[in-house]
Specification:
alpha/beta, 6-stranded parallel sheet, 3-stranded antiparallel sheet, 5 helices, 11 strands, elongated
């Protein structure tokens, strides 16, 4: 039986690189894959961007109201797809993760979803929470904090300082969620460094 896999890690743990490597491995063996990501992830537009400089166009974007299984079926029709690869899976809805589960179990196509578990306030993203609940296989992709410890949290940095208020999703936006000249970036942190930056606050 095909399975739903969730490969997760903090920011900069190589998730997109791992996805592109998986696609390459399938295609090197003459097999076909489909790549997708949520439309809300405007970074890279319709591309998957790796920190190592590799990029690739996705086969389809998943809008907030879309049926992910129906979108997959449209692209899969008449083709022999070996695997569906999803980037930034934390931005999916719980219902869309259920769609991925059905693609694996009922349609017999392995699905590998990559994403982060928690937002900058340590709250689980809806898509990640559902993946952690129903995925057949969970794999953590590890990265390190600036202090050398294992990073598990994602700190949001705006204008060079950590912020702990704002919308759950902010991609190239200001801390208040509106377009702003101050770039929003993220830093992977261990638990100790996160608590130091947040003044002891979790969530």
């Amino acid at each position: 039986m095909a399975k739903l896999y969730f490969r997760y890690g903090a920011m900069n743990s190589g998730k997109s690189t791992s996805l592109l490597q998986a696609a390459y491995n399938y295609e090197e063996r003459g097999q076909h894959v489909l790549l997708a990501k949520p439309a809300i992830d405007t970074k890279g537009a319709s591309q998957i961007d790796s920190r190592l400089g590799m990029t690739r166009e996705v086969d389809f974007l998943i809008g907030a109201e879309d049926d992910a299984r129906a979108l997959f079926a449209e692209r899969n029709e008449g083709r022999d797809i070996a695997c569906l690869l999803i980037d930034e899976a934390q931005f999916l809805t719980a219902e869309q993760v259920d769609d991925l589960f059905r693609i694996a179990v009922e349609d017999g196509i392995p699905v590998i979803a990559y994403g982060i578990r928690n937002d900058f306030l340590t709250h689980a993203f809806p898509g990640s929470a559902r993946l952690l609940a129903i995925a057949h296989s969970l794999e953590e992709l590890k990265t390190i904090c600036r202090c050398g410890r294992k990073a598990v949290f994602n700190g949001r940095v705006v204008g060079g300082r950590f912020v702990f208020d704002g919308d759950q999703v902010a991609i190239d936006e200001g801390a208040d969620g509106s377009a702003a000249p101050e770039l929003t970036t993220y830093e992977s942190l261990c638990g100790r460094c996160y608590l130091e930056e947040s003044g002891g606050r979790l969530g």
